[in-house]
What we know:
With 380 residues, the chain is an alpha+beta fold.
Amino acid sequence: MITLDGWAVLNFFTAFLLILLLIFQNKTSRLKSSRKYCSILIMTLILIFAETIGRIGEMYPDHWLFLARIGYLIIFLFDPVDILFALSYIDCWMDEENHAGRKLFRIAFQIFAAANILLVLISSIFHLKWFFYFEDMKYYRGSLFMGRGILLMVFIILLVAYVFIFQKNIMSEYKTIILFLPIFSLIGSAMQIFIAELDATYAGISLGCLILFFLFQSKDVNVDYLTGVLNRRGLDIKMQDMVKNSTLYGRDFTAIMMDIDNFKTVNDSFGHEAGDKAIKEVAEILVNTFGENAYIGRFGGDEFCVISDITDRSILREKVQSVRDEVARLRRKNGWAEQFDISCGYEVYHHENLVSAKQFQEQIDRLMYVEKQEHHGLQA
């Protein structure tokens, strides 16, 4: 009978779970939160693989000791990065309040992750034996091993504290769900302290990701099913948040409404499948042009909205022109009608104007339709 150690069984099923989550995670999603979620899955999978080959190298040092050296180096370099990715994911679901306080947390996590990588590299390159080392084909803990382990545990606890301290800043529908990730990470770390043979930290993170997937990632009601960007509901929520934060904290922002000109010609000439492709590719252009810090959504039909912290009009004009250039390239590539273009209207929201989110949206909508009428006039 073949017998497997407990760590091997746990690592196998944890890795299998992470791979399934990566497969079933909505690949069409263009939201920042989805990218951060996948980053956690990928980093945890890398760490599990490193831990597995490290154990194999320890078990068979005569031939595979180099695997232990590689695996443990990867773990010591990057396990704090997994915590940093978790913090970045949680931050996706918070509004702009308490920005300064949350920034201090993020800086502390970034410093810890960067300092850890630097010190581990120095120790490994110069054989200082700070964290781990090998002698006579055996693995040993270094002089700073315990201190680093305690710090790692402290930062996992801080991850839980971060959610509780800034819970009021998490959008109401996500408050309970988002807690699963830091709490299960903490449970996994605590179990690992008492059950040294099992690397339960990664299993805890994976279980938290699994719960997030079923309760949230797989059925976010604020995501447009076709393009993976925000839908009308998500845009309305984000616009209200931005107006509220602008009024409270004086942070101006810009909203851009865009409409695809003569979209019907694609459907009529090439079919609805080509029309869907056009919608998806325009959404991709907007994501690539405005970056992950902008909030991009499909307002409805062939209309899109971009909410950005860019308030310099010259930069905005450059961005809009870049979108037009990419749409023109897309039109030529697919052989669509020459009239296939975009009309847009944009305006900077100034905090002192005290305009409601609905009024501001109507304002940029009017600006877009003015340009659309000009385009139709030129075509006529």
